[in-house]
Amino acid sequence: MKNILLIEDDRSLSNGVRLALQSEEYNVLQCFALKETRKADISDIALIILDINLPDGSGLDFLRELRKTTNIPVILLTANDLEIDIVTGLELGADDYITKPFSLAVLRARVHARLRSITTEENTGYRSDRFFFDFKEMKYWVGKNQIELSKTEQKLLRILVENKGITIERSVLVDRIWTDGAEYVDENALSVAIKRLRDKIEKMPSKPQHIKTVYGIGYQWEE
Description:
- This protein is of the alpha/beta class and 223 residues long.
- It has two domains: 2-120, Response regulator (Rossmann fold), CATH 3.40.50; 125-221, Winged helix-like DNA-binding domain superfamily/Winged helix DNA-binding domain (Arc Repressor Mutant, subunit A, Orthogonal Bundle), CATH 1.10.10.10.
- It is 38% helix and 25% strand.
- A five-stranded parallel sheet has the order 2-1-3-6-7, sandwiched between helices. A four-stranded antiparallel sheet has the order 8-9-10-11, with no helix packed on it.
- Helix 1 (11-21) crosses helix 5 and helix 6 packs across helix 8 (189-201).
- The radius of gyration is 18 Å and the shape is elongated.
- The N and C termini lie far apart (39 Å).
């Protein structure tokens, strides 16, 4: 049984979500404020559902703290449906988001899909003469130097590495990195992410040897 931590101050909504998710497969633990959440033991938590607007602070602040120590998947619940709020949450490390009001059936499907992808994940690292990428622990080395990658850069790198030698279309990358497609993502966002990643891992970013552009289609990773 997988433990899900639900952080939502609306007790009626929280209880409704718990009833929708509680099963032989999932056990739902509830917190209603950041103070009690910070005291909770999250070592055995498989997924966190996090409200952004909490009575004693922002869920985004908690997410920022969380990402310093763990890669537990986080689904944001938010009434803030502006583009900047969604992008900020994803850039801080959220894996998905759902705007209020929402369907409990949709939430259940999102939770199931996220936990299923974790269960079936097999490849957690990549090693070559020059690189070592530990996707599980979120640690990345180029030669002897450890580098810092944003959540977007981590997702982009993992998709490319796990599909090395295969051209990934731009639209596919956008959909997989930004969860729900490009409806709120600037057309230039992927190009910016590619450039930043190249700057961090390529010897000559202007003449990349690993993150190759396949013109008119997308990108691919080469050994």
